[in-house]
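Q: My labmate handed me this sequence with no annotations at all. I'd like to see what the chain might look like in three dimensions before we decide whether it's worth expressing. Could you predict it?
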Amino acid sequence: MRFKKYITSKKKRGFTIIESLVYIFLTTMILADGINLFVLMYKSYIEATKLTIKYNNYQNFYINLDNIIPDIGLENIVVDDRYILFLMDNKSGKSDIVIKSYNGDIVAKYTESGPIPTMIQNINYLEVKKKGKLIYLIIHDKEGKEFIKCI
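A: Here is what I predict for the chain of 151 residues:
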C-alpha cells in the first residue's frame, strides 16, 4: 500500500513535455511581440528626432533672418521669385543683403566682399512671393514640404 502511494504522488510532481513546450511557445511569442514593439517605438523615436531637428533648423533660419533684416536704414526691398534683396541707404553704413537659394542651401550674400554665410542646408529651393506689402518666404524641402514665413 505504501508503495502505490509513492508511485502516484511521484507522477503528479513534474510537468509533462507538452506543458513545457506550450509554456516555451507562449513565452517566446510574448517576448517576440515585446521586441517587435520596442523596435517599432525606437524607429519612431529616431524619425521624430530627425523631424524635430529639421524643424528646429527652419525655425533658426527664420530667427536669423529676423536678426539680419535691419530695422534702421532699409531703403527698399527687391523681390524676385528666387531671391530677396534688402537695399540699404548710404547713410546707415550697412551693406545690401541678398537672401537666395544656392546649391541646395539658403545663403545671405552681402555686397561687401567676404565669405557667404550659409543660413540653412539641404533644401530643394527657396521661393519668394509678394502680395501687396506682404512678402512670403517659402522653403521647399527635399520631401516636398513647404515652410512659409511672412516678413
